[in-house]
Amino acid sequence: xxxxRKAILEALKASVQPVTAMMLAxxxxxxxxxxxxxxNLHYLEELGMAQSFxxxxxxxxxxxxxxxxxxxxxIHHHWFHCEKCHRFIDLGSCGxxxxxHAWEKKWDFxxxxxxxxxxxxCSACKA
Amino acid sequence: xxxxRKAILEALKASVQPVTAMMLAxxxxxxxxxxxxxxNLHYLEELGMAQSFxxxxxxxxxxxxxxxxxxxxxIHHHWFHCEKCHRFIDLGSCGxxxxxHAWEKKWDFxxxxxxxxxxxxCSACKA
DNA sequence: GGAAAATTTGCGAATGACTTGCAAATTTTT
DNA sequence: AAAAATTTGCAAGTCATTCGCAAATTTTCC
Lengths: 127, 127
What we know:
With 127 residues, chain A is an alpha+beta fold. Helix content of chain A is 36%, strand content 33%. Chain A binds a DNA duplex (30 and 30 nucleotides) through helix 1, helix 3 and strand 3.
């Protein structure tokens, strides 16, 4: 595992919030080329050490957000995104296996991935 | 309501599958400029007559898909997307109001939107 | 009904996230 | 530690989507 790879994985692991490739590329403590960041995020996701979703927010446009996914942090997570302060709230581990299994049976398809997230205004921003 | 607007809304209404702006722009029977298509899809969504979600598929890249949303077609729908044949399967009306209300209570945020869809291989493509 | 005001359209150029080709640098193999 | 394989940085490219602006259409008002 290369230096860049390790650094990017560590950054993901350390971040409480999902982050974009751009955020990581601009992080002074990392300072890897954006192409390298993009490539390594792909790599880490393929390995199952990261998970991502694409989110559009009026202020920041459409971007893919990554978060760490390790044995220690449980499985697939879902998030709420505040459109005012742009913070994410972790809704916890995904609890939809059962429902998805039911759908697979009903429609006879095979689910390889699912996307779920919420957007709105968080408690702090409402006040 | 302008001619373009009407035509685009009709196209959405007529389509069984969610469609992208590009698909509509390239439809010979419509032949409106892409900027017009994009602008009117935004308009229709703001009015609540269309709904959309962003989906990334390896073959077609990242695009926003729109579908009709009228009194006659029920409320918010969710979809399964087959990564082989690129067809969508309508999973029916969204049944998550309760769960989302529970989340709003638990976290004290206000949900303005939610995104949910599945990707995988459909029945026909497995065979 | 028709002229003025307001909105929308088409065109071309711009934006911004993400990707790619390629030579140099690093990592892995042996 | 040299050869082989992979990864990196850079610069240029791609592609969905947006924007500015003048011309065309739609709406408003008399």
